[in-house]
Amino acid sequence: xxxxxxxxxxxxxxxxxxxxxxxxxxxxxxxxxxxxxxxxxxxxxxxxxxxxxxxxxxxxxxxxxxxxxxxxxxxxxxxxxxxxxxxxxxxxxxxxxxxxxxxxxxxxxxxxxxxxxxxxxxxxxxxxxxxxxxxxxxxxxxxxxxxxxxxxxxxxxxxxxxxxxxxxxxxxxxxxxxxxxxxxxxxxxxxxxxxxxxxxxxxxxxxxxxxxxxxxxxxxxxxxxxxxxxxxxxxxxxxxxxxxxxxxxxxxxxxxxxxxxxxxxxxxxxxxxxxxxxxxxxxxxxxxxxxxxxxxxxxxxxxxxxxxxxxxxxxxxxxxxxxxx
Length: 325
Fold this sequence. Notes:
Blueprint: E1 2-4, E2 25-28, E3 35-36, H1 42-60, H2 62-65, H3 69-75, E4 77-83, E5 91-93, E6 96-98, H4 100-111, E7 115-121, H5 126-131, E8 137-138, E9 152-154, E10 159-161, E11 163-168, E12 185-188, H6 192-195, H7 197-206, E13 214-217, H8 220-228, E14 234-238, H9 239-248, E15 253-258, E16 263-265, E17 268-270, H10 274-290, H11 292-301, H12 316-323
Parallel strand pairs: 1-7, 2-13, 4-7, 4-8, 12-13, 12-14
Antiparallel strand pairs: 2-3, 5-6, 9-17, 10-16, 11-14, 11-15
C-alpha cells in the first residue's frame, strides 16, 4: 500500500552544520514566503539549537519506540516513508510515484514475509517520522552524514553520494570551486548537502574565500527553478541527480567540480534497531547478488555501482573509514 501525505513537522535542524547556524541562511518552500534569517534574534537562535537538541534526543531514544523485526512480523506490516521529489531516486509523474525506489520497494514486497506500507511525503518529515516511531525505515535517497549517525543507523548503501555544484550553463563567472566564494547557494532543507556545506566552506577558506548566503528549499525542483531564473548563483546536490538534471536540460544547467568528499545513499532506521537494520541490509545484498540492484541502478541512475559496502553503517568512525577507501 502506498499513500501520499503532508508532514506536520520539519526535522532539518538535526543536520544543520553548527557553524552555519549564524543566521546566514534562508528557508524557502512552496508554503512559506522567503524569510531572511539574518534578522533572527539571539533568542530565536537558541530556539533553533534547542529544537535540534530535542530531535537529536528523540533519535537517540528512537529504538525504544521503534518496532523490532519480531514486532513487524507479528503485526504483518513494515511501515516505510519515501520522499516525493528527489529525482531519479523518487518522484511523482502524472500523479503516480516513479523512480529507483519505486522499483526497489516492488522487489521488497516480493522478498518480505510481511506487507510493506509506504507513505510518500516531502523530505522534511521523514527523519522525524522515524524518531517518533511512526515509520520503521525511510526507503529513500538519504545521504549518510556524521550528524545523522548520532540518531540513526543506515542500511547497506544503494548508491554513492558526492556533492557537486550546479550552475547555469551560460554562467562564465564560475569555472571552479574557488569562484563560488560569496555567491548565493541553494540546497534542500535538512538534506545531506546542507550538512556537507561545511566541507565547501573549508575549501573556500583555504583559498581566502568563504561561503555566501545559503537558501534552503523543501525540494530540489524549486531550487533549480530559482537557479534558472537568476535568483541563485549555484545549487549543490549529489552527483547522480545532478548528472540526470544536466542530461535532460543541457542548455540550462551544467555540473561543476565536487564540493564534498565521498559519501553514500542509504536508508535510515532508528538507532539500535539492529534486527531490522540487518534484515534490510540482507535485502539490499540479495538484490546485489541476484543482479537486480545493478539492473535498477543502470535503469534509473545511469550506471551500476559494484564496489559499495555490503555492511550497515552505524557510527561516524566507520563512516570515515569507509569513505577514506
